[in-house]
Write a sequence for this structure.
């Protein structure tokens, strides 16, 4: 049991670091997905631990929301790319001091 | 057992996402992680999620990623230089500490015995999930439907581009072409096709004009920009070379135009 | 000198227990003509309102008409008020001696908590005399001003201010409580400010008006504190109630009350140390000077002291202070009068001196009150006469006020000369003239009370003789010194008629003393005086006074009349002359004692405000601003930076959770 959760934590942390270090918006997005999946893994693991299906339902909802999020996120990336000819998250940095 | 095989693969693939330069590779590595997770779901008595993970995540979401990637340039890759000062170091340090704290913290916890889902899954995992989803979580479920519809509308709005000019018809295009010819002398017909030779039938070789010079416009501009255009005279050198190999030291062609014809005959003879 | 007199005086003053001031008990609802008492104030007030508030609303062809007839409204209101005062006086004469205090309740002014202040009027013997003086002399000045201000484009406004002045003064003397008195008191201050600065285009006039106003405020603080103290002690300020309560009140409170009232009186009556505004106030038009010096304003202080006799009688220390202030002032003013070349300022110095005499008399107790009022009346006549005469001279001399540019005007303006001479003889105390009677009585009472004060008052009389003779000689006698383009001429009738009337009063004012009439008349108000035997027989004192005055006059004759008078004031003069020219350094003392410490205090506060307060405020804002300038770099626009902060925060939360759970 512990091993699943530890794996989930490791994957989550890798996702975090990916979000922080990668600049391509698509890769950043993928790292976000990685973090979501790590959470899902923990959910499913805990569902087995507790012997009910609520965890699986939660993971299911996370997937649904992630799908919606990806659709919108990618559309935004597309729009930004269309106007700025760049998919780097660092280029969209005009809103600052 | 499955876990101990998959876990290193997953961690390695996840770390790979951090280090590969091309986004396509990152997407493929992510697919590895996701499929592995799907297998772990199967191991953990969640066959429904196993299927959904494969179909929705790997099948739909990742494909969407790849589509977008194709749209915005498949070979767009990060440079290795970090633009924000200290960001990479700090991210690494904080990330490491964070992961370490999480792992250490979790390892301190004793979870007790695993209950297992055998009882909950009696009568099948999918009916059991359906039971709970359409009773206990029905409102959340309905809310997700609203969320999905909103997402669809949002994607449409974001991707939509307002048409600012009327749609060009064939007639207006033809008129425009002739007008360009009248005003700028632009050739109204189609561009010449690239060179087609007896031995070479290639888009990267320009066609030859009647005076023997190469027609620059017959080759795609992309190839010209890449600098991979071959010239017809270079081709002629090949012919001379071949002829020498077969022992025919006849007259050396002066122009590519004259050499082209015998070359063809040579080809035909073969 | 002050210390000496103080100790001497204290020993000779009657004890508080022995003194009893008469209680004021007005009879209300007297009916008849007394119901019209309020009209005395209302008429000039109405004139002021008409001239100042209604007239400016006139449009079109009306406008010119209003401007041309404004002075008639003003003068008419004053004269009507005088006629009414006269009728009231006659009516009062017709009543028995015990019924001569008439009250009139107009309305409740304000009522808050236990304090109830009514708009009450009190018409008694004292108020009656003041009413006659104010409206009578005031009317003459109004009439005179018609001629004097003929060419001034703002004559309507001037008459509005004059009416306001008279109305305020009437309110002051008619009110039956100190709050109403204060209303008039402040009204007088306002009107004097407006009138002294009437020619506001002159910087000196504006400055003088401001100075008069500010110095009067100092006195007003005294009066308002006194009123507050009365409310706190007696719960009321009605003369009737206060006069009844003072006999059994705390001695210290009464002393404080008396000193505060004296401070108020000093401000209005230009007594040392609040005297410095009076000479500067000469910047106003001459009728204003006459009004201030003769009928209104400066007499208010004397009125206040006499009216508050029920307080001063039981506060001997305050009374002593009055005497000391008065003695210093009478000498101070007299010395100033000796050195001034400006005819109006010389007269102003004499006013100061004469008011000093009145205050001196008022400080002497019941024996002096009637003579204070008597001298106030006669002074009102001859000083108005001389001021208007001086105005007439200036009128003929192209508004030049320097006596060194006059000389030999007696032939050029005979009426002015003759009337002025009447005033002159009255003020120096020429036997038979009004000033002779009034001043003689004051000096006699002073001598009877205290030898030092009496001798100083006598000395003042001699100096009066000197400076008035000097003024007279420099103006009307000696050789002519005026410029070629000046053509002295007699003033029009509208100006000379009031002069003649006032001259007559100056001569005949002494008749008020006939048979000690004024003493008897005022006795119900001021109390009966024990007769103190003077150190010398009365006739000897009178001879002495006349002798001293004669010496003064003779000195002036030899020093001024027999010598050439340079057109420019000589510079190499004695220290005494220089000091007197500089108002005995009154302004310099004010500067050193009040203005400069005040300025340094304000400067210090400003610096503290700028450096300390502003520094703290602006410094903290600078610090915050500086920090913000640095901190805002954190908002660098990079999403990944923000995400890093987010992760660090999450790390902290995890650590906190661990710390809580594992600890």
């Amino acid at each position: 049991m512990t091993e699943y959760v530890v794996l989930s934590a490791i994957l989550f942390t890798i996702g975090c670091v990916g979000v922080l270090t990668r600049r391509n918006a698509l890769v950043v997005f993928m790292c976000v997905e990685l973090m979501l999946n790590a959470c899902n893994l923990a959910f499913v693991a805990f569902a087995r631990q507790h012997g009910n299906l609520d965890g699986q339902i939660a993971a299911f909802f996370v997937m649904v929301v992630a799908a919606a999020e990806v659709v919108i996120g990618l559309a935004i990336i597309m729009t930004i790319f269309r106007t700025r000819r760049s998919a780097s998250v660092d280029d969209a940095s005009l809103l600052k001091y | 057992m499955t876990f101990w095989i998959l876990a290193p693969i997953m961690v390695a693939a996840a770390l790979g996402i951090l280090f590969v330069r091309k986004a396509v590779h990152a997407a493929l590595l992510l697919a590895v992680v996701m499929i592995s997770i799907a297998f772990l779901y199967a191991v953990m008595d969640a066959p429904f999620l196993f299927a959904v993970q494969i179909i929705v995540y790997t099948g739909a979401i990742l494909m969407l990623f790849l589509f977008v990637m194709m749209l915005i340039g498949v070979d767009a890759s990060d440079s290795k230089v970090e633009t924000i000062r200290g960001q990479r170091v700090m991210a690494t340090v904080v990330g490491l500490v964070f992961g370490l704290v999480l792992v250490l913290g979790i390892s301190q916890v004793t979870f007790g015995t695993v209950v297992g889902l055998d009882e909950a899954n009696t009568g099948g995992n999918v009916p059991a999930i359906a039971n709970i989803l359409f009773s206990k979580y029905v409102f959340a479920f309905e809310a997700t439907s609203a969320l999905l519809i909103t997402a669809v509308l949002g994607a449409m709005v974001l991707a939509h581009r307002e048409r600012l000019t009327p749609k060009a018809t064939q007639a207006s295009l033809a008129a425009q072409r002739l007008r360009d010819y009248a005003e700028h002398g632009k050739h109204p017909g189609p561009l010449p096709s690239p060179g087609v030779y007896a031995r070479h039938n290639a888009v990267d070789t320009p066609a030859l004009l009647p005076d023997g010079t190469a027609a620059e416009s017959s080759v795609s501009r992309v190839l010209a920009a890449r600098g991979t255009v071959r010239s017809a005279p270079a081709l002629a050198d090949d012919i001379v070379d071949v002829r020498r190999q077969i022992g025919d030291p006849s007259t050396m062609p002066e122009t590519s135009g004259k050499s082209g014809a015998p070359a063809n005959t040579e080809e035909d003879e073969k | 000198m002050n210390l000496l007199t103080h100790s001497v005086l204290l020993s000779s003053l009657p004890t508080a227990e022995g003194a009893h001031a008469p209680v004021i008990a007005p009879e209300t609802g007297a009916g008849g003509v007394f119901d019209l008492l309020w009209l005395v104030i209302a008429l000039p007030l109405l004139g002021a309102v008409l001239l100042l508030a209604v007239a400016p609303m006139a449009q079109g062809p009306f406008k010119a008409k209003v401007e041309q007839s404004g002075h008639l409204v003003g003068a008419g209101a004053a004269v009507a008020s005088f006629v009414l005062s006269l009728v009231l006086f006659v009516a009062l004469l017709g009543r028995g001696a015990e019924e001569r205090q008439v009250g009139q309740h107009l309305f409740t002014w304000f009522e808050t908590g236990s304090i109830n202040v009514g708009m009450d009027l009190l018409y008694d013997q004292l108020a009656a005399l003041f009413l006659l003086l104010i409206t009578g002399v005031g009317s003459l000045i109004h009439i005179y001003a018609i001629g004097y201000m003929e060419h001034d484009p703002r004559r309507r406004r001037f008459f509005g201010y004059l009416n306001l002045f008279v109305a305020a003064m009437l309110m002051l003397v008619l009110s039956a409580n100190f709050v109403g008195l204060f209303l008039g008191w402040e009204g007088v201050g306002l009107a004097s400010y407006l009138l002294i600065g009437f020619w506001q285009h002159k910087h000196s006039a504006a400055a003088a008006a401001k100075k008069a106003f500010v110095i009067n405020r100092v006195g007003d603080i005294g009066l308002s504190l006194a009123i507050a103290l009365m409310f706190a002690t007696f719960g009321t300020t009605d003369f009737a109630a206060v006069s009844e309560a003072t006999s059994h009140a705390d001695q210290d409170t009464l002393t404080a009350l008396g000193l505060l009232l004296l401070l108020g009186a000093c401000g209005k009556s230009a007594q040392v140390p609040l005297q410095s505004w009076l000479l500067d106030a000469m910047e106003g038009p001459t009728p204003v000077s006459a009004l201030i010096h003769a009928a209104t304003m400066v007499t208010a202080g004397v009125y206040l002291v006499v009216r508050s006799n029920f307080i001063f009688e039981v506060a001997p220390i305050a009374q002593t202070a009055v005497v000391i202030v008065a003695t210093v002032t009478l000498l101070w003013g007299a010395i100033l009068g000796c050195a001034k070349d400006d005819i109006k300022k010389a007269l102003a110095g004499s006013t100061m001196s004469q008011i000093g005499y009145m205050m001196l008399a008022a400080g002497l107790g019941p024996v002096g009150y009637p003579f204070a009022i008597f001298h106030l009346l006669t002074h009102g006549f001859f000083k108005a006469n001389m001021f208007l005469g001086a105005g007439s001279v200036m009128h003929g001399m192209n508004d030049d006020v320097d006596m060194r540019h006059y000389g030999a005007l007696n032939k050029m303006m005979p009426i002015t000369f003759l009337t002025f001479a009447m005033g002159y003889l009255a003020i120096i105390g020429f036997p038979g003239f009004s000033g002779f009677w009034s001043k003689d009585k004051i000096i006699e009472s002073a001598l009877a009370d205290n030898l030092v004060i009496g001798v100083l008052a006598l000395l003042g009389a001699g100096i009066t003789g000197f400076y008035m003779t000097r003024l007279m000689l420099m103006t009307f006698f000696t050789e002519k010194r005026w410029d070629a383009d000046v053509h002295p001429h007699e003033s029009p009738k509208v100006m000379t008629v009031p002069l003649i009337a006032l001259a007559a009063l100056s001569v005949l004012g002494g008749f008020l003393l006939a048979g000690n009439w004024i003493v008897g008349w005022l006795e119900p108000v001021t109390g009966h005086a024990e007769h103190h035997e003077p150190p010398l027989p009365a006739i000897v004192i009178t001879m002495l006074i006349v002798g001293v005055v004669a010496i003064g006059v003779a000195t002036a004759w030899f020093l001024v009349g027999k010598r050439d008078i340079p057109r420019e004031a000589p510079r190499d003069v004695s220290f005494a002359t220089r000091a007197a020219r500089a108002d005995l350094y009154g302004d310099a003392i004010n500067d050193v004692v009040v203005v400069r410490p005040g300025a340094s205090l304000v400067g210090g506060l400003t610096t503290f405000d700028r450096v300390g307060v502003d520094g703290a405020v602006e410094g903290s804002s600078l610090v915050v601003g500086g920090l913000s300038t640095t901190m805002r770099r954190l908002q660098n626009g990079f999403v990944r930076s923000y995400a890093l902060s987010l992760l660090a925060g999450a790390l902290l939360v995890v650590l906190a959770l661990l710390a809580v759970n594992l600890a």
Residues 2-581 of chain C form one domain.
